[in-house]
Design a protein that fits this description.
alpha+beta, six-stranded antiparallel beta sheet, 20 helices, 12 strands
């Protein structure tokens, strides 16, 4: 007798649910422990402290915070449920038996789809009902609205995750005839875009000098990676003001809804594929003939990118870039042959896959050649000054290692003058690259190194990012046209040094100078210790700070050198540092040296500091320390 419901068969549904009861029973048990048991536990744990209701209400209100963890659990569970529901596709006897039943494939597919999704969502619905009963029984009516709305948010989000992940798993199940291949394909679909994007970034980083993807927006990569997009959208975000939570919501409910729609579309496509799937494909790694070429090329290119980059960076013989090319090409060839072996289920495939293997190898050679010879001109690409809107990043300012060690590029440094100087340094790096090539071997011979991390925001909306680890040579510091000379000129610029120290950030009505310390001094107790200047009054500390600023303005301190062992640098600096400790209410500057955090009625209080390396020329600072009698307690330590 023909069923009145063409997409569902109740007998088969009950049989599948009964056969795989450990899956949904275990999921029910885990959910019960995670939600209602924890909810009641909070209540009874706080019962003797007379705040049981509040503890339970707080846990109930924060239930949506668990959605992120639920996503991780459901990612695995949905794959298991799809493997269980469609397990008959992966065994010849089961496949022929199921498809011999007097029902259309649409009904068979619909029944098994519903049975698998039921193993996930029915326990969630049952647990939600139990939580509702507990909240209504144990919480006063004034807490019902908050608790039940939080439970509703939690339930909607986990159901959205379940539908999406299970639909993706079912879609993957239609492409394979081997049960162990399903979770592999499922993982590939969920993480492929991010994986390939990361592999290409790593390959470009190894090939192209200075290449950095830090400025590239990877939001679209996350959106095209289902698992990461759903995890990110499931974060429960709370907005606070004055210690009071004013709002809370999921990071991106729209993304969750969009992926539910994507999941339903994939389900329809899975049904379309299932209707044309050959029963004889049971046991094949790839059950759809049209997808087999894509499988070969995907395995070949991914193995070439991943294993080639791994071996190239790990072994690093001789010319690192040339060796990397060899590894990428070799592993591409191996990957193609391995894919052919999996498809044919035989080791004797070399004769039949020669043309395909040669084509995949040729493509990898072309890719490596393009990177090796930089056909796209990535290494030498420079933005025009009039096209630069702003520059973000960090430039290492050499030595000494005090608060001026890094120039933080950003909003406070976004001036025409700074952009010109940064671009001039970048131009020197590119000019040296065009003249002498990339310093692969020279990196082991530099007297010192300077790290440069730049991200140009351009008028056309694009971002150009570069990251260098520049070797500095003593003999080139005064040789115009070299990178070392350009770096030393950059470090010697007093405007840039002032921006690196950023003294103004330590001054303001909300900032208090709490203490001063001398570090690396000789005392009666220690030949290389520190001395807290506790006897200084607030006025004296302020005067000492002003003296430091006077010396900096006069060029007596804050002079930067590119090489730590430079004789001129050693002769003109002490080992001794002068440290100032400040306290502010609210957030400290983003580049401040935060020491500790405390709390007051007016908000968070941060202790943070500034470190200044003393020099023999710092007459104002040293004279004031002499006047305060500091040198009666300690001695400065010069460089030997």
């Amino acid at each position: 007798m023909r069923s009145a419901t063409p997409f569902f068969d109740s007998a088969l549904y009950r049989k599948t649910m009964a056969r795989f009861w450990p899956l949904w029973a275990g999921w029910t048990l885990l959910l019960t422990f995670l939600v209602p048991v924890q909810l009641v536990g909070r209540y009874f744990d706080a019962l003797h402290q007379n705040h049981a209701v509040q503890a339970m209400a707080d846990y109930a209100a924060n239930l949506p915070q668990m959605v992120y963890v639920m996503g991780i659990l459901q990612l695995v569970l949905c794959a298991l449920c799809a493997m269980a529901a469609f397990s008959y596709l992966y065994n010849n006897r089961s496949a022929f038996m199921m498809h011999a039943l007097p029902m259309r494939r649409e009904k068979l597919f619909g029944t098994q789809y519903l049975s698998g999704i039921s193993m996930v969502v029915l326990p969630e619905l049952a647990v939600s009902v139990l939580v509702v009963v507990l909240e209504l029984a144990l919480l006063p009516s004034e807490h019902w609205g908050t608790a039940l709305s939080a439970l509703g948010c939690w339930l909607l989000a986990v159901l959205a995750q379940a539908v999406t992940f299970y639909s993706i798993a079912v879609f993957c199940a239609m492409f394979t005839g081997h049960i162990l291949a399903l979770p592999v394909f499922y993982g590939v679909v969920n993480f492929l875009v991010t994986a390939v994007y990361g592999l290409l970034q790593q390959l470009c980083h190894l090939f192209l000098y200075g290449f950095s993807a830090a400025g590239l927006s990877d939001s679209w990569v996350t959106k095209l990676t289902p698992a990461l997009a759903i995890f990110d959208a499931s974060r429960w975000v709370e907005n606070w003001k004055g210690g009071v939570r004013i709002s809370s919501q999921f990071a991106s409910p729209g993304t969750l809804g969009a992926y539910v729609v994507v999941g339903l579309i994939l389900t329809v496509l899975a049904l379309f594929i299932y209707r044309r799937r050959h029963v004889e494909s049971a046991g094949d790694v790839v059950a759809v003939p049209l997808v087999r070429p894509l499988f070969r090329w995907s395995v070949a290119l991914c193995s070439g990118l991943f294993l080639g980059a791994f071996c190239g960076s790990l072994l690093n013989f001789g010319n690192p870039r040339l060796f990397l090319c060899i590894m990428v090409v070799l592993w591409t060839l191996v990957g193609y042959v391995a894919a052919e072996m999996m498809l044919k289920k035989s080791f004797h495939v070399l004769r039949g896959c020669r043309k395909g293997a040669a084509a995949a190898t040729a493509l990898s050679i072309l890719l490596c050649a393009g990177c090796y010879f930089d056909w796209m001109g990535v290494e030498t690409r420079l933005p025009a000054l009039d096209q630069v809107v702003s520059i973000d990043g960090t430039v290492n300012m050499g030595v000494p290692w005090d608060s001026g060690r890094d120039l933080i590029l950003g909003e406070n440094t976004n001036t025409q003058s700074v952009r010109e100087k940064v671009l001039k340094l970048h131009q020197a790096v590119v000019a040296d690259l065009e003249k002498n090539g990339r310093p692969d071997e020279a990196e082991t011979m530099g007297n010192d190194y300077i790290a440069v991390d730049l991200s140009y925001q351009l008028k056309n909306g694009r971002t150009l990012s570069r990251r260098y680890h520049l070797p500095i040579y003593q003999e080139d510091l005064k040789k115009e046209g070299t990178v070392s000379f350009a770096v030393q000129q950059f470090l010697s610029d007093r405007e840039l040094a002032g921006l690196a120290y950023n003294f103004d950030q330590y001054e303001g009505s909300e900032i208090s100078l709490m203490a001063v310390e001398l570090d690396y001094v000789k005392t009666d107790r220690d030949t290389n210790g520190s001395l807290m200047l506790e006897e200084l009054t607030g006025a004296q500390r302020s005067e000492l700070w002003k003296a430091v600023r006077q010396d900096f303005d006069a060029g007596n301190i804050g002079v930067r050198w590119a090489i730590d062992s430079d004789k001129e640098r050693l002769a003109n600096t002490y080992r001794t540092d002068l440290k100032f400790y400040f306290r502010t209410v609210g957030e400290p500057p983003h580049d401040a040296e935060v020491g500790s955090t405390a709390y007051t009625n007016s908000g968070e209080v941060y202790d943070w500091g500034a470190t200044i390396t003393l020099t023999p020329q710092a007459s104002h600072t040293l004279g004031l320390l002499q006047e305060y009698g500091v040198w009666d307690q300690c001695e400065l330590i010069p460089w030997d």
